[in-house]
Amino acid sequence: MRDEPPGGGPGTGLGSTVTDAAGVCVLALDGVLGVRTAPELDRVLGKLLLDRGRLLVDVGRLGLSSTAVLAAFATTLAAAGGWPTARMVLFAAGGPVIEGMRQAGRHREVPVAGDLAQALTLLDRRPARVRRTTDLPGGPEAAPFARLLLQATCQDWGLSADLTERGAIVANELVSNAVEHTVGPGELSLAHSSRGLWVSVRDGSAARPVLTAESDGLGLRAVAEMSRTWGVTPLHSGKSVWALVGEEAGNG
Does the keyword ATP-binding apply (predicted)? Predict the structure, then answer.
């Protein structure tokens, strides 16, 4: 099957062909991946991941005009549920996409393989870094939603009960703080690697949260106590407040 972007023509988008190998969906891409074609990549990957769950992507014929857009592979995978709900491996004997993924370390989240056989094998292995993102509801239901999502995600990832419990407290406080002091949380992102469990909440306010009992009660103090480290990353629109929760409790 050939999936051409709207108004497609030479150099105007990404071409894609969908086949199957050993019962797994294989997407072959051609064209040039860049800022202009990244939305098309998001659309195709997102649809196939939600429909099929397991996806191999042949990037042997895919050019690259901007390495920054390689983040789209991991972002789309995380939005589709991430491991083990959604799985994706890129493969090719070489080329700019494979090399770019390796050089940027993005292969830790979206594995890369040299051929189809290796890609099929890697599809059943948990990546070094797993991630899941979701939009959060507004209002008082946001914090309970975040706790439940974190608990379900930690179970999927096989994390310890202690790490799950502390992660749930951190998620609850970050989301509650965003609901109380901003226009409302936009997105919850969870990730796990050898360093621990990352919890981050994006909201639409540029105002930096303040670690004071007077303004936040135990909220951000609990985050600091439960985490190895926490911080704020300014974004183009708003900010992300994040915390790294290790297997051991924070230093307080």
Answer: yes
DSSP structure string for the chain: -EEPPTT--TTSS-EEEEEEETTEEEEEEEEEESTTTHHHHHHHHHHHHHHHSEEEEEEEEEEES-GGGGHHHHHHHHHTT-TTTSEEEEE-SS-HHHHHHHHTTGGGTS-EESSHHHHHHHTTS--SSEEEEEEPPSGGGHHHHHHHHHHHHHHHHT--HHHHHHHHHHHHHHHHHHHHHSS-EEEEEEEEETTEEEEEEEES--PPP---HHHHTTHHHHHHHHSSEEEEEE-SSSEEEEEEE-SSPP--
Please name the CATH architecture into which domain 2-122 falls.
Answer: 2-Layer Sandwich (3.30)
211: Cβ contacts below 8 Å, ≥ 6 apart: 220, 221, 224
- Report the pLDDT averaged over residues 219-239: 88
Q: According to CATH, where is 3.30.565.10 located in the chain?
A: 130-245
Tokens of 179: 């609901």
Q: For residue 180, what are its two tokens? A: 């109380």
CATH architecture for segment(s) 130-245: 2-Layer Sandwich (3.30)
pLDDT for the residue numbered 206: 77
What distance in Å separates the CA atoms of residue 20 and residue 1, rounded to the nearest whole number? 11
Work out the percent of the chain whose per-residue pLDDT is above 90.
Answer: 74
Q: Please give the pLDDT value at position 211.
A: 53
